[in-house]
Amino acid sequence: MKPLRIVIIGSGLGGLAAGIRLVSEGYQVTILEKNTLPGGCLRTKEINGFRFNYGAEVITAPFLFDQLFEQAGKNRHDYFDLLPFEPVFQVIFPGEKRFAFFSDPQKTLQWNNLFSQEEERALLSYFQANEEIFNDVFFDYCSKPIQDSQLRSFFPFLPQKLQNQKSSLQVAEAYYKTPELQLVFGFWPLLAGGDPRESGSLFRIIPSIFSHWGASIPVGGMKRVLNSLLSVFLEQGGEILYNSEVQEIQIFNRTVSGVRLIDGSIYHADIVISDVDALTTFRFLIDSDKNKYSSVSQAKTKNPGISVFSYHLGLDCTLEEKISLAGCNFIFPNHFDAFLSDLFHRKTLSSDPFFLLKIPAKTDLYAAPHGFEALSVVIPVPNLASDISWERESYLFRTHVLELIQDYFVTDLRKHILFEDYSDPVRMWTENRSYLGAAFSAMPSSAKKNDHRFPNRCKDIRNLYLVGAGTHPGPSIPGVLMGAANAVSQIKADFS
């Protein structure tokens, strides 16, 4: 039997992970990448000895990488190693109240002074309740390919303690009395583009993921991970073509037949996998008969999620800190609710935003040259559906961000900047093809809707599969790796 020909659109984590699994099974796989380099949201920029990641860089559930390499007959340790770090992150509140989150709940209790005896019991109760649903959510829901009908029927079978009719923030408020603890354990949906006041409580398992596997960074940065995945894919016989932007997924009789590039060339395929944002895939890549597909109609009804603004600085000195900072610091504004309303409802840039301040050298000694320092700031911002003109606002916003982070350092940052770089919603769209620059594809559903991300197998276009943050089970490195495995398992079942 002639091997099936598979085309994968995009070389992000989902595309490479699916490609490795498929070539290891004997399929003929070609990845088409629109840019000159692979990586998608995993891309890394290196400038004069500084190294900045433009996407996820913290790895948890490392066994998912181990499984991927084992599928190819490889040992992940031969390609890259992981370096655990603690605390996983620090939260800084107005008035310089701080909270350090450790993977071990007992250590979190030990190192923080926000806990009364009542709040200590609340924390342990919170984690115990999470453990009761963890296997159901992580292994039965996330790690299995589930179609629309199964997705709708999944939730009634979860333990009642999931409280799936409550938002993530409402669940935290039910456990904790201290406002700061309510925010710490309720803000999780924001890391996937959702409003903590509205998004469902499935996000509450994120702390349990850390408690199960901790947090690590790859030695050599995400670039090392990306190069390792690419090497394994090519070693197994896969093919990758750069500067190959797909304009259209070709479909005949509701079955994919290949893709057409913007230069007019056609690649025939028995199977097409899109690692492009799911909203972009259905809105722009389906051929001229798109109106007859319910998946396209569904994509048009979904709201794209928020975007992010990333700002990176290379400094010619080490920095003196006003308060002790961790590698990852979540900074809460004076009025978090007002910030969320600006972001999700008014769709404006907040003057007092929530943001992540990263100091890469705290966890990676080689993120900056010796004696120098690197800083990265990531801020949730509205997507391109807003009235924000990023051509004008980008510089002004960078200046404001610099003022915000200066409050945490004695060193005058402006006097020591060697270079700066940034990414805004426009770049998210042009470089990653994320619809309207949404960083995490569609908006996470509200607690009352139980809506879900797109299944990994298209429900009404045969032989079309999807991977990446916009598909089941969702964003994050574990989510994308599980989604790629789900898609491949469905391909194997469909073509066995």
Automatic annotation (TrEMBL):
Q: Which Gene3D superfamilies match?
A: FAD/NAD(P)-binding domain
- Pathway, per UniProt? Carotenoid biosynthesis
Identify the Pfam families for this entry: Amino_oxidase (PF01593)
A single GO molecular function, which one?
oxidoreductase activity
**A biological process (GO) annotation for this entry?**
carotenoid biosynthetic process
Provide the Amine oxidase domain boundaries.
13-274
Keywords, alphabetical: Carotenoid biosynthesis, Oxidoreductase
| Residues passing through the membrane, by range | none
NCBIfam families recorded for this chain?
crtI_fam
Family statement: Belongs to the carotenoid/retinoid oxidoreductase family.
Protein name, as recorded: Phytoene desaturase
Organism in which the protein naturally occurs: Flexilinea flocculi
